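S.,

Sequence below, as promised.
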Amino acid sequence: MTTYREPELTLDEPVLVIVPWHDDVVDRIGYDPRSPYVETFWLNVFGPTSTWILRRMVTGLDEYPGGYELDLEQTAGALGLTFTAGASNPFARSINRTIMFGATQPVPGGLAVRRRLPPVSARHLQRMPPYLRTAHQLWQRRTPATEAQAERARILAEAMLRAGDPNDAVERQLLGLGIPPITAIDVAKELTTRPPDAA
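The prediction came back faster than expected:
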């Protein structure tokens, strides 16, 4: 049986080309990597070094939206690390964590970086300390019925239905993506019971 492994980036050059990762769904509903949401919840998933690297890469994309070259020695030094070629040093492992958890992906000649991150998944929440899980529930309850939250849920649900997901799985998947229960139930019912010609 072959074990699946995430792609690993080997840092053999002193610079890494950074380009934006365009995702129509996540770009519309996600959180900026420098936001309080990411600092509070995604930090637990990525770890501090990977979070800071991601923040720096996204800040670079603010200045150079089409892409740019990231100086690896300078970036590692700014984070208190040393850059050495390869994939087994702490700096390279931190970049590879951003790949492992879906914030970046290798592309020919460089790395594509998300400018916005999706809500943390239920799988990640289950591994967090109880106080963080409680904080996430409170975060969701603060604005449970805003139109922005409902629109976020609709975008996700429509993407699921277009991808062929069964109607009865939409509500469960919305909950798994961090959509508040009331909103998930309402949006799933709205989209899965509408006439086909209204899609």
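The chain has two domains: 15-114, 143-198.

Coffee later?
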